[in-house]
Amino acid sequence: MVALQRACYLGQLNYIKETGGVTASVTSYPDVNHAENPHYHETFVLSLVLNGGNVEKRKAMDVERTPGTITCHEAGEPHRSTRIRPGSRHVNLELTEQFMKVYDLHTHAAALEKSHSSDARFLMLKIYKELLVDDQHSSLSIESSILNLLHFTNMSCTRSGTPNWVSKITEALHDRWNETFTLNELAEIADMHPANVSGYFPAYFGCTIGEYRRKLKMEKAFELLKSHCLSLTAIAYECGFADQSHFTRTCKQLTGWNPKQLKEMNTK
User: Fold this and answer.
1) According to the CATH classification, is domain 2-158 in 2.60.120.10?
2) What is the pTM assigned to this prediction?
3) Cα distance between residue 170 and residue 78, in whole Å
C-alpha cells in the first residue's frame, strides 16, 4: 500500500498552489500501470475528473468516475484506481487536519461527495481556472471559495431538521427544471406565504431561487456537453436558455469557463 503525502499523487503533477491548509493541484495520468497501485492519502482529498476517467475501488464499493464526477477521500482511506483512461486529468483539493479543525470541517467535508454536487463541481472548475491564471489573487480566491462551499455544507449538515417545504420545493424544481415557475406557484407548493419562501430559500439552498434554477439548467447542460453530436446552440435550447449568449454568460459565471472550453474538456 502506497502512502501519499501532501501534494503527492501517482499521476503527473501539472499545476499546484498551496495556501494556508489548502493545496490545489491538477494531475494527469500518462503512466496508467503505476497509477493503479493501491494507495491512500495522508490528507483529506476532494477530486474532480476533468477528462478521461477511471473506476475507483473502495472497501465498500466501486465508483465509476467520468468527467464532472466528484469524489472525497478521508485521510488514510485505502483505494485503488483501475481502468484509467490514458491522459485522464483531475483537479484535486487537499485539506490538512489542522485546517479542518480550525474551521470545524472534519465531520462534514465528505458530504460534498453526496450533497451539493453541482456547487462542488462548479467550484472545482473555478479553482482549475485560478490554477491556470496563477496571479497574486489566485491563492485568496482558492481559499475563500473552498471555505464558502464547506461552510454552507457544514451548516446544511448540522441544521436541526429540514422543514417539509424545503423537500417539496426541491422535488418540484428538480422534476420540472425546464418549466417556468412564479413565486406564487412555489409558495402554493410549499404551502407558505411567497415572502417567506423568498426570504428563507437562501438559508436552505445557499443561493436565491433564480440562481438555483440557473444551476439546475447548467447541470443538465454539463451532461450534454459530453456529447460529440450536439452543438452548443442545441444544448442551450435543450436546457432552456434564452439563446447561446445567455448559456455562455451563465456558464462563465458559475464555472469560470465558456461552454466551448468545457465541451473540449469533456470530450477529450
Assistant:
1) yes
2) 0.84
3) 35
